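Components:
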Amino acid sequence: MSMDGVAIDRARAAKIRVGLRLEDLPQVNGIGLVRIGQGYGIKVNLSEPLENQEAIPPEVDGVPVVVEFVGRIVAR
Amino acid sequence: MRTHNPIPRILSNNHVLADENSGRKGDAILQPGVYDKGQRGRDKIGSLDSFIRLNPSGPNYVDCALATIDEGIPFETGLLKGVGQITGTVGDLPAENEAVHKIGRTTGLTNGRILAFELDNVVVSYDLGNLRFDSQIEIEGADDEPFSLGGDSGSLIYDNQRQATALLFAGGDHGGKNGKGLTYANPIQRVFDELDVKLLY
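Structure:
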Protein backbone atom coordinates (compact mmCIF):
# COMPACT_ATOMS: atom_id res chain seq x y z
CA MET A 1 0.00 0.00 0.00
CA SER A 2 1.43 3.38 -0.95
CA MET A 3 1.24 6.53 1.18
CA ASP A 4 -1.82 7.45 -0.84
CA GLY A 5 -3.64 4.23 0.00
CA VAL A 6 -5.08 1.54 -2.24
CA ALA A 7 -6.10 2.66 -5.74
CA ILE A 8 -9.72 2.20 -6.76
CA ASP A 9 -8.97 -0.33 -9.52
CA ARG A 10 -7.02 -2.53 -7.12
CA ALA A 11 -9.84 -2.37 -4.59
CA ARG A 12 -12.36 -3.30 -7.28
CA ALA A 13 -10.30 -6.31 -8.34
CA ALA A 14 -9.93 -7.43 -4.74
CA LYS A 15 -13.69 -6.98 -4.21
CA ILE A 16 -14.35 -9.56 -6.91
CA ARG A 17 -11.94 -11.99 -5.26
CA VAL A 18 -13.55 -11.43 -1.85
CA GLY A 19 -16.97 -12.07 -3.39
CA LEU A 20 -15.82 -15.40 -4.85
CA ARG A 21 -14.16 -16.39 -1.61
CA LEU A 22 -17.28 -15.69 0.46
CA GLU A 23 -19.96 -16.88 -1.96
CA ASP A 24 -20.78 -19.91 0.20
CA LEU A 25 -21.39 -17.80 3.32
CA PRO A 26 -25.17 -17.14 3.52
CA GLN A 27 -24.60 -14.48 6.19
CA VAL A 28 -22.92 -12.15 3.69
CA ASN A 29 -25.37 -9.42 2.69
CA GLY A 30 -23.35 -6.99 0.64
CA ILE A 31 -19.78 -6.51 -0.52
CA GLY A 32 -18.76 -2.99 -1.46
CA LEU A 33 -16.03 -0.38 -1.49
CA VAL A 34 -15.21 2.08 1.29
CA ARG A 35 -12.92 5.07 1.50
CA ILE A 36 -10.00 4.52 3.87
CA GLY A 37 -7.91 7.68 4.11
CA GLN A 38 -6.90 8.68 0.60
CA GLY A 39 -7.44 5.16 -0.69
CA TYR A 40 -10.04 2.42 -0.80
CA GLY A 41 -10.91 -0.78 0.99
CA ILE A 42 -13.60 -3.44 0.95
CA LYS A 43 -16.64 -3.66 3.22
CA VAL A 44 -18.40 -6.95 3.88
CA ASN A 45 -21.88 -6.74 5.42
CA LEU A 46 -23.39 -9.57 7.44
CA SER A 47 -27.05 -10.30 8.03
CA GLU A 48 -26.12 -12.67 10.87
CA PRO A 49 -22.97 -12.83 12.98
CA LEU A 50 -20.41 -15.39 11.81
CA GLU A 51 -19.57 -18.38 13.97
CA ASN A 52 -16.08 -18.46 12.50
CA GLN A 53 -14.80 -14.87 12.62
CA GLU A 54 -11.71 -15.90 10.67
CA ALA A 55 -13.76 -16.81 7.60
CA ILE A 56 -13.26 -13.24 6.37
CA PRO A 57 -9.63 -12.18 6.07
CA PRO A 58 -8.62 -8.69 7.30
CA GLU A 59 -6.84 -8.05 4.00
CA VAL A 60 -6.99 -9.46 0.47
CA ASP A 61 -4.16 -8.76 -1.99
CA GLY A 62 -3.05 -5.90 0.26
CA VAL A 63 -6.52 -4.33 0.29
CA PRO A 64 -8.03 -3.88 3.78
CA VAL A 65 -11.36 -5.60 4.48
CA VAL A 66 -13.78 -4.26 7.10
CA VAL A 67 -16.78 -6.26 8.32
CA GLU A 68 -20.04 -4.96 9.77
CA PHE A 69 -23.18 -6.66 11.08
CA VAL A 70 -26.08 -4.89 9.31
CA GLY A 71 -28.94 -7.31 10.05
CA ARG A 72 -31.97 -7.61 7.81
CA ILE A 73 -32.51 -4.95 5.15
CA VAL A 74 -36.06 -4.04 4.19
CA ALA A 75 -37.65 -1.80 1.58
CA ARG A 76 -38.58 1.47 3.29
CA MET B 1 -37.79 15.33 -13.97
CA ARG B 2 -38.50 15.09 -17.65
CA THR B 3 -38.51 12.61 -20.46
CA HIS B 4 -37.31 13.62 -23.92
CA ASN B 5 -40.28 15.89 -24.15
CA PRO B 6 -39.75 18.13 -21.13
CA ILE B 7 -42.79 17.18 -19.08
CA PRO B 8 -42.19 17.24 -15.32
CA ARG B 9 -42.62 13.94 -13.49
CA ILE B 10 -42.62 12.79 -9.89
CA LEU B 11 -39.73 10.45 -9.09
CA SER B 12 -40.06 7.81 -6.38
CA ASN B 13 -39.65 4.07 -5.93
CA ASN B 14 -41.44 1.24 -7.73
CA HIS B 15 -42.51 -0.06 -4.30
CA VAL B 16 -43.99 3.36 -3.46
CA LEU B 17 -45.72 4.36 -6.71
CA ALA B 18 -46.23 0.99 -8.46
CA ASP B 19 -46.73 -1.34 -5.47
CA GLU B 20 -43.87 -3.69 -6.40
CA ASN B 21 -44.71 -4.25 -10.10
CA SER B 22 -48.47 -4.52 -9.61
CA GLY B 23 -49.31 -0.94 -10.61
CA ARG B 24 -50.65 -0.03 -14.03
CA LYS B 25 -50.04 3.09 -16.07
CA GLY B 26 -52.70 5.60 -15.09
CA ASP B 27 -53.17 4.37 -11.52
CA ALA B 28 -54.00 7.24 -9.14
CA ILE B 29 -51.11 8.66 -7.10
CA LEU B 30 -52.22 10.18 -3.81
CA GLN B 31 -50.56 12.81 -1.62
CA PRO B 32 -50.76 12.14 1.28
CA GLY B 33 -50.61 8.43 0.52
CA VAL B 34 -53.17 5.84 1.60
CA TYR B 35 -51.06 4.98 4.66
CA ASP B 36 -51.39 8.62 5.76
CA LYS B 37 -55.16 8.60 5.21
CA GLY B 38 -55.03 10.03 1.72
CA GLN B 39 -58.26 9.44 -0.18
CA ARG B 40 -58.82 8.65 -3.82
CA GLY B 41 -60.33 11.64 -5.58
CA ARG B 42 -59.73 14.25 -2.92
CA ASP B 43 -55.98 13.66 -2.63
CA LYS B 44 -55.10 12.57 -6.17
CA ILE B 45 -52.14 14.55 -7.47
CA GLY B 46 -51.10 12.46 -10.48
CA SER B 47 -51.00 9.11 -12.23
CA LEU B 48 -48.50 6.29 -12.46
CA ASP B 49 -46.51 6.83 -15.65
CA SER B 50 -43.80 4.15 -15.80
CA PHE B 51 -41.59 2.00 -13.62
CA ILE B 52 -38.60 -0.31 -13.81
CA ARG B 53 -39.72 -3.81 -12.87
CA LEU B 54 -38.29 -5.36 -9.73
CA ASN B 55 -36.76 -8.70 -10.67
CA PRO B 56 -37.18 -11.46 -8.08
CA SER B 57 -34.69 -13.76 -9.82
CA GLY B 58 -31.78 -11.58 -10.80
CA PRO B 59 -29.74 -8.60 -9.74
CA ASN B 60 -31.63 -5.32 -9.53
CA TYR B 61 -29.99 -1.92 -9.80
CA VAL B 62 -32.86 0.45 -9.17
CA ASP B 63 -36.23 0.59 -7.42
CA CYS B 64 -37.80 3.51 -9.24
CA ALA B 65 -40.95 4.79 -10.89
CA LEU B 66 -42.37 7.97 -12.39
CA ALA B 67 -45.76 9.61 -12.04
CA THR B 68 -47.35 12.43 -13.98
CA ILE B 69 -48.60 15.53 -12.17
CA ASP B 70 -52.25 16.49 -12.57
CA GLU B 71 -53.13 19.86 -14.02
CA GLY B 72 -53.65 22.45 -11.32
CA ILE B 73 -51.38 20.72 -8.79
CA PRO B 74 -48.72 23.28 -7.79
CA PHE B 75 -45.09 22.11 -7.80
CA GLU B 76 -41.58 23.52 -7.98
CA THR B 77 -38.87 21.59 -9.84
CA GLY B 78 -35.53 21.13 -8.12
CA LEU B 79 -36.49 22.86 -4.88
CA LEU B 80 -35.44 21.18 -1.64
CA LYS B 81 -37.92 22.72 0.75
CA GLY B 82 -36.16 24.82 3.38
CA VAL B 83 -32.74 24.00 1.92
CA GLY B 84 -32.42 25.52 -1.54
CA GLN B 85 -32.27 24.61 -5.18
CA ILE B 86 -30.71 21.40 -6.52
CA THR B 87 -27.57 22.36 -8.44
CA GLY B 88 -27.01 19.26 -10.59
CA THR B 89 -26.10 15.59 -10.42
CA VAL B 90 -23.10 14.19 -8.57
CA GLY B 91 -20.32 12.80 -10.75
CA ASP B 92 -17.22 11.61 -8.93
CA LEU B 93 -16.62 8.77 -6.51
CA PRO B 94 -17.55 9.74 -2.95
CA ALA B 95 -14.89 11.25 -0.69
CA GLU B 96 -14.14 9.72 2.70
CA ASN B 97 -17.09 10.44 5.01
CA GLU B 98 -18.89 12.20 2.15
CA ALA B 99 -21.72 14.17 3.71
CA VAL B 100 -25.22 13.68 2.32
CA HIS B 101 -28.72 14.75 3.33
CA LYS B 102 -32.31 13.95 2.55
CA ILE B 103 -35.81 15.21 3.31
CA GLY B 104 -38.17 12.32 3.97
CA ARG B 105 -41.78 11.67 4.85
CA THR B 106 -41.00 10.02 8.22
CA THR B 107 -37.77 11.50 9.57
CA GLY B 108 -37.75 14.83 7.72
CA LEU B 109 -34.36 16.45 7.09
CA THR B 110 -31.50 14.22 8.21
CA ASN B 111 -27.74 14.26 7.73
CA GLY B 112 -25.65 11.24 6.83
CA ARG B 113 -22.37 9.99 5.47
CA ILE B 114 -21.70 7.64 2.59
CA LEU B 115 -20.18 4.56 4.15
CA ALA B 116 -19.93 2.17 1.20
CA PHE B 117 -20.54 2.31 -2.54
CA GLU B 118 -20.50 -0.12 -5.48
CA LEU B 119 -22.14 -2.43 -2.96
CA ASP B 120 -23.19 -5.75 -4.55
CA ASN B 121 -25.25 -8.72 -3.37
CA VAL B 122 -27.47 -6.64 -1.09
CA VAL B 123 -30.55 -8.72 -0.27
CA VAL B 124 -33.60 -6.56 0.47
CA SER B 125 -36.86 -7.88 1.87
CA TYR B 126 -39.99 -6.94 -0.12
CA ASP B 127 -43.53 -8.30 -0.19
CA LEU B 128 -42.40 -9.92 -3.46
CA GLY B 129 -39.66 -11.77 -1.59
CA ASN B 130 -35.95 -11.22 -1.05
CA LEU B 131 -34.52 -9.26 -3.95
CA ARG B 132 -30.84 -8.84 -4.77
CA PHE B 133 -29.39 -5.42 -5.59
CA ASP B 134 -25.98 -4.58 -7.04
CA SER B 135 -24.07 -1.27 -7.31
CA GLN B 136 -25.77 0.35 -4.34
CA ILE B 137 -24.79 3.14 -1.94
CA GLU B 138 -24.83 2.68 1.85
CA ILE B 139 -25.35 5.62 4.21
CA GLU B 140 -25.08 5.98 7.98
CA GLY B 141 -26.64 8.69 10.11
CA ALA B 142 -24.22 11.54 10.88
CA ASP B 143 -26.01 12.66 14.02
CA ASP B 144 -27.53 10.58 16.80
CA GLU B 145 -30.50 9.59 14.65
CA PRO B 146 -31.00 7.08 11.84
CA PHE B 147 -30.59 8.57 8.37
CA SER B 148 -33.98 7.07 7.44
CA LEU B 149 -36.89 4.98 8.68
CA GLY B 150 -39.85 3.25 7.06
CA GLY B 151 -41.82 5.69 4.91
CA ASP B 152 -38.75 7.66 3.82
CA SER B 153 -38.36 5.65 0.61
CA GLY B 154 -38.34 7.75 -2.51
CA SER B 155 -36.42 10.59 -0.86
CA LEU B 156 -33.81 12.27 -3.00
CA ILE B 157 -30.38 12.16 -1.34
CA TYR B 158 -28.12 15.12 -2.07
CA ASP B 159 -24.64 16.28 -1.09
CA ASN B 160 -23.27 19.48 0.47
CA GLN B 161 -23.28 21.16 -2.95
CA ARG B 162 -26.97 20.20 -3.27
CA GLN B 163 -26.16 17.80 -6.11
CA ALA B 164 -28.56 14.90 -6.54
CA THR B 165 -26.72 11.77 -5.37
CA ALA B 166 -29.06 8.81 -4.83
CA LEU B 167 -32.63 7.58 -4.47
CA LEU B 168 -33.43 6.15 -1.03
CA PHE B 169 -35.20 2.75 -1.07
CA ALA B 170 -34.21 0.48 1.84
CA GLY B 171 -32.65 0.26 5.25
CA GLY B 172 -31.96 -1.77 8.35
CA ASP B 173 -31.83 -1.21 12.09
CA HIS B 174 -28.24 -2.32 12.69
CA GLY B 175 -24.86 -0.84 11.89
CA GLY B 176 -23.41 2.61 11.41
CA LYS B 177 -21.16 4.53 13.80
CA ASN B 178 -24.16 5.72 15.79
CA GLY B 179 -25.64 2.21 15.91
CA LYS B 180 -28.93 3.50 14.48
CA GLY B 181 -28.86 1.46 11.31
CA LEU B 182 -27.95 1.91 7.67
CA THR B 183 -29.78 3.25 4.64
CA TYR B 184 -29.49 1.96 1.06
CA ALA B 185 -29.92 3.98 -2.09
CA ASN B 186 -29.66 3.66 -5.87
CA PRO B 187 -27.03 5.89 -7.53
CA ILE B 188 -29.08 8.69 -9.07
CA GLN B 189 -27.50 8.64 -12.53
CA ARG B 190 -28.41 4.96 -12.90
CA VAL B 191 -32.00 5.84 -11.96
CA PHE B 192 -32.12 8.60 -14.57
CA ASP B 193 -30.57 6.34 -17.23
CA GLU B 194 -32.97 3.45 -16.59
CA LEU B 195 -36.02 5.73 -16.69
CA ASP B 196 -34.58 7.76 -19.58
CA VAL B 197 -35.10 11.06 -17.80
CA LYS B 198 -33.06 14.08 -16.84
CA LEU B 199 -33.10 16.16 -13.72
CA LEU B 200 -35.25 19.26 -14.11
CA TYR B 201 -33.96 22.10 -11.95
